Amino acid sequence: MAKLSRSIRETLFWWRPINGDSDVGHYFELFKRLLGYIRPYLFPQLVFAVAAMLLNGSVNGMIPLLIKKIINTIATIPSSKTTGASVQAMHLLAAEILIVFIVRAATDFLSDYLTTYLGMEIAMDLRGEFNDRLQRLPLSFFNWRSTGGLIAHALSDVQAASSVVHDTLFSLIGDSVTLVALVVGLFWMDWRFAIIAFVVFPLAVLPVIGVARRVRKMYRNAQKRLADVTTLMQEAIQGCRVVKAFGMEEYECARFRDQLARQLRMLRRVLRIGSFTDPLIEVLGAIAVVTTLWYGTDLVLAGARSPGTFAGFIGAMLIVYKPFKRIAGTNNSIQQGLVSAERVFRVIDHPPEPYETPGAIELPNGPHRLEMRNVSFRYAPNGALVLRNINLSIGAGEVAALVGMSGGGKSTLADLVPRFYDPEQGMVLIDGVDIRKFTLKSLRSQIAVVSQSTFLFNDTIRANIAYGGPGKSLDEIIAAAKQANAHDFIMRLPNGYDTTVGELGVRLSGGERQRIAIARALLKNAPILILDEPTSNLDSEAERVVQDAIERLMENRTTLVIAHRLSTIRRADRIYVIVSGEILEQGTHEELIAMDGAYRRLCDLQFYAPELVEMPSRLAMS
Ligand SMILES: Nc1ncnc2c1ncn2[C@@H]1O[C@H](COP(=O)(O)OP(=O)(O)OP(=O)(O)O)[C@@H](O)[C@H]1O
Ligand SMILES: [Mg+2]
Fold this sequence. Notes:
By secondary structure, the protein is α/β, with parallel strands linked by helices. Helix content is 65%, strand content 9%. It has a domain at 2-348: ABC transporter type 1, transmembrane domain (ABC transporter transmembrane region fold, Up-down Bundle). It is built from 23 helices and 10 strands. The radius of gyration is 36 Å and the shape is elongated. The termini are far apart. The structure holds adenosine-5'-triphosphate (ATP) and magnesium ion.
């Protein structure tokens, strides 16, 4: 009961905000903003489209007049004494009808084609803008979004948003012109009759507007479900190994179907409301036709109106009904499009990454000294501190190793150097200058990053390595691959450097992928290296080959390495032990072993026997 009274209230008082979801002004702004995307296509496309629509509408408005003429001319034939003149008039009329319908067909085609194409162009513009922004958003943005959801925004939401433009133009302008032309034509023919015929139509407007807010709300939920479905599908495909290994196919299928069913339920509710407007207009149309018939028959019988006028009115009733229905339906799709536009613009309006200070300077090329001073950091504004008061310093060309238990904050610390994140307190310095003073581009050009998990693009090996230096020649790419111990295995592949590696490099082994990633970093040849050493379990031969490549990569570079291999740690000039976001110990391997603290325990836990055997003897020597 309460629900019923609420829907009645919602329908009757559609202009009043309910539940904060009816910010009419907000949606009007969105609407204006979307229409702004037409600007580049004003001339000649839009001008021609509107001209075609105007012509089409006016021609439609002439149809009742034509019907009137036909009926009246036919009616005069039998009684006419001048049959020849009537036949001539009929021929002239036939020519008129032909012209009207040809013009109608041509303008129909032109306006539909031009506005649909305009909608497509705007969809592409929006999608391009969406991706432009996506490429420049900070990492933190992606931590809280799902890939599936973003893909749904870029595809389905952009589509729905751009259809607002098409629908508005085609339906609101085109159909309104037809509507106005018909009404004007009818009033011109017989204004009293016209008032009776059209008195019911304005009644349809209220409920049509009333459903707008409900459509928006339901469609918003339906789109959320679509994002869930996309996310689920993407995960099931990317995680197919895990799914198979754990025999979870049934579970995944059931989960997916469940999501589909939820989405369907939401869509059904949108559909129900959408489908409700059509029959409403149909009933109103029928009432109008019946009224005209009933009243008109009397008038014709009384001789007050000609049969032609009567037929013209009935014809007009039947024509007017289509654009009217379409305008009402368009309202629903515009509401849906506005919800989608809201989601697209939320991404487009998200502040991008640069956060460069005004007057940022270029970081010159060359060996650099890297430093962190009192750095603290947390991911979420009110979350726990992940890094606490970190101080470290790496001289030009030196190697610093970060070691520590999993989850201690090592990768987070490394992410601060290329400014994937900025510290909450303290600063990161290169050559004594806060890195926030450098342009982001020049800063990142001085840093090569090899991350914990290698990412390869679904492209050729050559393209994957060339990512580190887009302008580099094939010779340079091969040289980098040789240094990374990758050349030999690449040459054994069917197409050598032109072999495509599959999504995420699935067609390569783990060690091979790592060496491609190392070759990419070598090609970049940046003076600062951030290396999150891969922890994958390679066999000792593959391990040695990868290790060898890593050694070469670190040569002559200021390196911050998150080390898992004892050989890398030993080679470091300084080791920092990070536990729960703090530097607990620091020094060389020998110094730290001698301290017999956290580092010593970590070594005991992490490194296997042959290395450990060696340790006490070295310790004894020091
Ligand atoms: N993107 C993120 N958003 C929120 N919290 C995060 C994020 N990444 C990591 N964390 C949290 O920050 C802490 C430090 O994570 P980090 O990845 O830096 O650890 P780590 O030392 O590199 O561990 P590992 O040796 O396992 O790679 C962890 O508690 C983790 O849960
Ligand atoms: Mg890590």
